[in-house]
Amino acid sequence: MLANVTRSVIAAGLVFALSSAAHAVQCQPPGGFDTWLTSFKQEAAAKGISQQAIATAFNGVTFDPAIVARDRGQGVFRQNVEGIEKLCRVTGIPDRRHLRASHIKPWKLSDDRERLDGSNGLLLSPHLEHLFERGHISFADDGQLLVSKHLNPTVAKAWGLDKPRPPRPFRAEQRAYLEFHRRQVFEKVTSGRRT
Q1: Which of 16, 35, 63 is the endpoint of a domain?
Q2: Which residues lie closer than 8 Å to 103 by C-beta, 6 or more apart?
Q3: Which of 17, 21, 107, 160 is 20 to 30 A removed from 53 (C-alpha atoms)?
Q4: Per-residue pLDDT tens over the stretch 46-72
């Protein structure tokens, strides 16, 4: 296990040191991965990285189409969510660079269609995505914020969840996912440290 972690850290360092958009594009097709990997190793050596470090970092590295598909799917999901949601439902922040596309019905419980469905998503500020995914907050169909009785009141106050805000109603397609979230995720706090 430790060897896999070490290998991953070294590979990540090499990728960070050498990566560019061109590298990512070149490794997309499965048939081109071996060629891309050979070229990447040569570039690493040319930049002074030892053969031993290169061999250790890339030992057992393979092209995994499932990982590539999940990564591409996340991009498609975000685009689909942005077609429906324009700003954070709680903070009102419209700058999408600072927002997360969060699944309403959790990804692990969704089928392939639901995982990409923009109606199964919200744009949330990162701290609110954290609370939403862990069941500390949810939304009523009319857009009213629901705060879990399990959420530390100090957190709720510090993050402004106690302030009134005008609700924005959800679309019919979103309401079905929100019903699932309220039944299966909201108030079902089972992880994380408490103080």
Answers
A1: 63
A2: 77, 110, 115, 120, 121
A3: 21
A4: 988 899 888 888 887 777 666 655 555
